[in-house]
Design brief:
This protein is α+β, with helices and mostly antiparallel strands. It folds into two domains: 66 residues, no CATH class; 56 residues, Nucleic acid-binding proteins (OB fold (Dihydrolipoamide Acetyltransferase, E2P), Beta Barrel), CATH 2.40.50.140. The chain is built from three helices and five strands, in the order αααβββββ. It has a five-stranded mixed beta barrel with strand order 1-2-3-5-4. The termini are far apart.
């Protein structure tokens, strides 16, 4: 069983190094606990129980604490990358809806008040398939 637990530890560590999101590190710690219990001549069901309990305990106790120290960079998509930018209206807003053009793509926008053609608007968010905008004072 020592070889089996060594393989579990190696596989968990390899997966953790490849994924790097605190996914399988807990299984490596549980595998270490089971590996330590293997020379004590415990039956394999008890070793598996030790593996599961230690892995689950590490997951519940350590993950929230360690998650604070791992900073993953959020990459903005094409949708939220435009929030805060200003554009000109292609079509006057009627009933709060109009159109703007972003990189050769025409988008529907929703605005609280009606604005004329060529009015400058700023994107404040996204709802469904339309941008939420507000008029910009010149």
């Amino acid at each position: 069983m020592m070889i089996a637990w060594s393989v579990v530890i190696a596989a968990a560590l390899l997966a953790e190094f490849l994924i790097y999101n605190l996914v399988s590190a807990w299984f490596a710690v549980g595998g270490m606990a089971a590996l330590i219990s293997a020379p004590c001549h415990l039956f394999w069901p008890y070793q598996i129980l030790i593996f599961v309990v230690v892995s689950f305990a590490c997951l519940l106790c350590l993950r929230p604490f360690l998650k604070k120290f791992i900073h993953t960079k959020t990459i903005p998509t094409n949708l939220d990358a435009n929030v805060g930018k200003q554009f000109k209206l292609l079509r006057a807003t009627a009933d709060g809806r109009g159109e703007i053009k972003i990189h050769d793509v025409v988008w529907t926008v929703q605005c609280e008040k009606d604005l004329p053609v060529d009015a400058t608007v700023e994107i404040t968010g996204m709802e469904g398939n339309k941008y939420i905008v507000k008029g910009v004072e010149k």
